[in-house]
Design goal:
The protein has helices at about 1-35, 45-50, 50-70, 70-95, 110-140. By secondary structure, it is an all-alpha fold. It has one domain. The N and C termini lie close together (about 10 Å).
């Protein structure tokens, strides 16, 4: 039983770290870039570019939550959002013509896609908070 608990903790910690990496990388590069350029720089698309990290991290968190039987429903909703929001943003960009330049930037299409990408970032943060809570519960249990 102790082996199962240890593996569950490893999954939860690894998933939480992987999930927070896109947010941390965005903030760190924004701070360093802003200081070196002496102007505010923020790449709001970086979490979407680092989607594989968030996807794997959320998957590991879901696996850990299933093993521990803790926070399964909220973490599965978080995984759904982490997958669904960037996919929806990409599909909308493709089907409205925003992705290939058929539609001029600045219209409702860009607003919708940008909103979905922003919500994706919030979904990563919310699921990352759930990961921290899962880790706290797992380590308190021991």
């Amino acid at each position: 039983m102790k082996k199962k608990t240890l593996w569950t903790k490893v999954l939860a910690v690894a998933g939480t770290v992987l999930l927070w990496l896109p947010i941390a990388a965005t903030l760190i590069t924004a701070i360093i870039g802003s200081i070196s350029a002496r102007t505010f720089l923020f790449d709001y698309l970086m979490p979407a570019e680092l989607f594989p990290l968030a996807f794997v991290g959320a998957g590991l968190l879901l696996w850990a939550s299933f093993r521990a039987k803790l926070l399964v429903r909220p973490i599965s909703w978080g995984l759904d959002a982490v997958i669904g929001l960037p996919v929806a943003a990409q599909l909308i960009a493709i089907f409205t013509g925003l992705a290939n330049g058929d539609v001029a930037r600045g219209g409702w299409q860009e607003i919708l896609v940008t909103t979905l990408i922003g919500l994706y970032g919030l979904a990563i943060i919310a699921t990352g908070i759930l990961g921290i809570q899962l880790c706290q519960k797992l380590f308190k249990k021991a």
